[in-house]
Design a protein that fits this description.
Helix content is 42%, strand content 17%. It is α/β, with parallel strands linked by helices and 345 residues long. It folds into two domains: 59 residues; 222 residues, Alpha-Beta Complex (Spore Coat Polysaccharide Biosynthesis Protein SpsA, Chain A), CATH 3.90.550. Strands 1, 2, 3, 4, 5, 6, 8 and 9 form an eight-stranded mixed β-sheet that branches. Strands 7-11-10 form a three-stranded mixed β-sheet, with helices on one face.
Length: 345
């Protein structure tokens, strides 16, 4: 009886082992075929990816700049420029306003106020708006509206970078490129934010003063010891591996700064040596440091006011060159008051 059971178990075990062996061979064969297929697919994908990457590199030589830099220098092009300024006329002073593509209300407010001033103290003044490409689902409709606005006002300069807050450095550098290409015979330019009231007469008066330099000149609210912020939760956080220094070089605050027209070309000349950060006015200071040209403090601190206590008095409005405002209605009110006879202080 034992022999019979042993023989039966032997037969069963042999059968099981036979089937297990067949299953193992099937699994190994399947895995081998899968690996061969995957290697073939990966090889083909790498060839395609290599071609795609090469094409992309040829079109966009810069890598992703990361969170603290911007993709400049790049071969950005002006795609809309219907202004005669610096082409058929030579302004003494150019008022250059960076503005979002969709912010037509801000542009119209400026056109109705200080941006509409053409002759000031006998000098030709011209206001221009610089912008990039609109974004969002309605970008095409926005672009068509910009084209119509340009045909009506002839004061828009548009380049083909994506317009965003993080690309303000690109916008500033494109602005300088346009000035170098078209306005070398002008005397001064002021870059002024769209929420700023500009007292053009006071600015021209400053620029005509014999003590104001005609070259290597840049002024505004100058920050001489601006700390590099290390708190990662701060909007302007900058890690040490990007900027090791504890302070930025001195720079004029971006709300409004004026420069002589020899500076744009000089700044562009050194910009290729400094990888641009997204904080546009601090980057301008880095370029000025490389040039060895420090900014100039205005003759009075009250000429440029970055954070005023509203409402401003008639005395303050009679002296100021540039001050931030909180609304279009406030800008209009301040501008109308600034045109009244000079207040007694």
């Amino acid at each position: 009886m034992a022999n019979i059971l042993y023989s039966a178990l032997y037969i069963v075990n042999s059968t099981v082992l036979k089937y297990l062996k067949q299953i193992l061979i099937f699994i190994l064969g399947t895995v081998a075929l899968f690996l061969i297929y995957e290697n073939f697919e990966i090889g083909c994908w790498n060839i395609v990816a290599l071609g795609t990457t090469s094409a992309a590199a040829a079109e966009h030589p810069w890598e992703d700049p990361g969170p603290y830099h911007v993709a400049y220098p790049r071969n950005y092009k002006v795609i809309m420029d219907d202004t005669p300024s610096c082409k058929t006329t030579t302004p003494f002073l150019i008022l250059m306003v960076p503005v979002a593509p969709g912010d037509v209300a801000a542009r119209d407010t400026i056109r109705k106020t200080w941006g509409g001033e053409k002759q000031v103290l006998g000098k030709l003044v011209k206001t221009l708006f610089i912008l990039g490409l609109p974004g969002g689902a309605d970008a095409q409709q926005q672009q068509e509206k910009l084209r119509q606005e340009s045909q009506q006002h002839h004061d828009l300069i548009q380049s083909n970078f994506q317009d965003s807050y993080r690309n303000l450095t690109i916008k500033t550098m494109v602005m300088l490129e346009w000035l170098v290409a078209h306005c070398v015979n002008a005397s001064y330019v002021i870059k002024v934010d769209s929420d700023v009231l500009l007292h053009v007469r006071n600015l021209v008066k400053l620029l005509l003063d014999p003590s104001t330099a005609k070259q290597n000149y840049i002024t505004g609210v100058v920050w001489w010891h601006s700390p590099v912020l290390r708190n990662p939760f701060n909007k302007f956080y900058m890690p040490r591996d990007v900027i090791a220094e504890a302070e930025y070089p001195p720079y004029p605050l971006g709300m409004a700064y004026v420069m002589s027209l020899d500076l744009p070309g000089k700044i562009l000349g050194v910009s290729s040596q400094i990888k641009p950060i997204y904080i546009e006015d601090a980057y301008l200071g880095m370029c000025l440091k490389r040039l060895g040209i420090p900014p100039t403090d205005p003759p009075e601190q009250t000429l440029f006011i970055v954070d005023p206590s509203h409402p401003l008095s008639s005395c303050s409005l009679s002296k100021v060159i540039a001050t931030t405002t909180t609304s279009a209605s406030q800008m209009i009110s301040y501008w109308e008051r600034s045109r009244q006879p000079e207040a007694k202080c």
